[in-house]
Amino acid sequence: MIFIDGDGPLQDFAKWMVDQGIPLGYDREDTESMFHEKIDRIFIDSPNAKYLEFFKQLYEEYPKGYVKILTAVGSHWPSTDMLEKASENKRMALASLGFRRQDIVVVLSGKDKIEYAKNKDGTSNILFDDKWSTIVAFEKAGGLGMFVPECYIRFDEAGHADRA
To answer: In whole angstroms, what is the distance from residue 30 CA to residue 58 CA?
Structure first.
């Protein structure tokens, strides 16, 4: 199976942050509080990423259900209601790009993507992701990670570089 991350490969969430005047860099209290303030629009207004058309073609070429979106919503939401709203916003945004809702898997954090590295029969899955540490962990768990570096702002500029 092939998994594609939502933020980075499909949507340019970093550009949305810049456009909204949100301080770049995850795990910052000011950034997270601005995410919370923008709960009604978060993820919905993210512009398309550079490789969206490639990933849509990949999604359409394979049999239904073979390519899925595997995206993290973040663990910083202060309430279950906000977490559910942000998760639904992600699903709506990705569905508006042409991905079927049943093919969109929303997990809490990048660490939760690792359980998708291998299938129950031991075969490996592929993950396209823009976070290097997730790629490394996915491969350590037996999957194949494909790093997608081209976002509006590179990781080091966004204050959350994690490449080795």
So the answer is: 37
- Has residue 163 been placed in a domain? no
Domain residues for the domain of 100 are 2-158
With bands split at pLDDT 50, 70 and 90, how would you rate the model's confidence at 163? very low
CATH number reported for the structural domain that contains residue 104 in this entry = 3.40.50.1000
How many structural domains are present in the chain? Answer: 1
DSSP string, the chain: -EEE-SBTTTB-HHHHHHHTTPPSSTT-HHHHHHHHHTTTTTTTTPPBPTTHHHHHHHHHHSPTTSEEEEEE--S--SSHHHHHHHHHHHHHHHHHTT--GGGEEEESSGGGGGGGSB-TTS-B-EEEES-HHHHHHHHHTT-EEEE---SSS-HHHHT-----
Residue indicated by tokens 């390519």? 67
Does 151 fall in a domain?
Answer: yes
Instruction: Give the 3-state secondary structure of residue 9.
Output: coil
Per residue in 73-88, pLDDT (tens digit) is 988 899 999 999 999 9
DSSP bridge pairs for 129: 147
Q: Which residues pair with 136 in a beta bridge?
A: none
Other CB atoms within 10 Å distance of the CB of residue 60: 11
